[in-house]
Write a structure and sequence with these properties.
This protein is α/β, with parallel strands linked by helices and 214 residues long. The protein has a single domain (31-213), classed as 3-Layer(aba) Sandwich (Rossmann fold), CATH 3.40.50.300. The protein has eight helices and seven strands; from the N terminus they run ααβαβαββαβαβαβα. Strand 3 (100-102) and strand 4 form a beta hairpin. The longest helix has 17 residues, at 123-139. It is globular and about 50 Å long. The model is unreliable at 202-214 (pLDDT under 50).
Length: 214
């Protein structure tokens, strides 16, 4: 990925505007945190997360953080050709600076995590992570999280910490049947999804696909 391309943020400006219009992105002087996930691996969550963070950073005065919150925590850094020391959830807030990496040309910072955050019921781990999360939210107006695929428990873990979660859909691979099956799975436990982003859309999306998402 050519992260320094001048039109990269512009390519995701429509996504930023949709998030803003849908209330998933804080307006001026309002902070926000958004986790992005997908039905399966390879749907483009990392690329959309990077592009969304770049679009926000290019149009907002507040600081923007992209968190690679997937189980391995390496995808975004690899796409951006960056090396950053993964942050362990039990670390002290004072240790944040050594784990944050500025992304050249795109205007936001990157944080890699060694593992997704704990669930709220995991008392000891959750207490340590709460201090880290509060420190990040105070430092950054907008936090975009690459939560990876719903085939892991990472998106469900992130749902307990972020303001909203949204689903990235690869329109070249998804079918109505897949979406209906996915909705049935969510009813039996999964993160509450506040919206969706259609990725790789090079054609008109049939109305039945939108109905399957509603």
């Amino acid at each position: 990925m050519d992260a320094a391309a001048p039109d990269f943020a512009d390519a995701f400006e429509a996504v930023r505007l949709k998030l803003l219009a849908s209330g998933l992105l804080g307006a001026a002087n309002v902070s926000s945190s958004l986790a992005l996930t997908a039905i399966g691996r390879g749907d483009g969550v990392s690329t959309v997360a990077i592009g969304t963070a770049a679009a926000i950073a290019g149009r907002d005065d507040g600081k923007v953080l992209l968190v690679d919150g997937t189980p391995l925590g390496e995808r975004c850094a690899a796409l951006l050709s960056l090396t950053a020391a993964p942050l362990v959830g039990s670390a002290e807030p004072a240790a944040l600076d050594q784990h944050l990496a500025a992304v050249p040309g795109l205007g936001f910072d990157l944080l890699q995590l060694a593992a997704p955050p704990p669930q709220a019921g995991e008392t000891a781990a959750a207490a340590a992570w709460t201090a880290l999360w509060q420190a990040l939210r105070q430092r950054y107006r907008h936090v975009v999280v690459d939560a990876g695929s719903l085939r892991s428990d990472a998106p469900l873990r992130w749902a307990g910490w972020v303001d909203h979660s949204a689903l990235v859909i690869d329109t070249t691979r998804v079918t109505r049947e897949m979406l209906e099956g996915f909705r049935r799975e969510l009813r039996h436990g999964g993160p509450a999804l506040a919206g969706f982003i259609l990725n790789k859309r090079k054609f008109h999306v049939p109305a039945r696909l939108y109905r399957a998402l509603s």
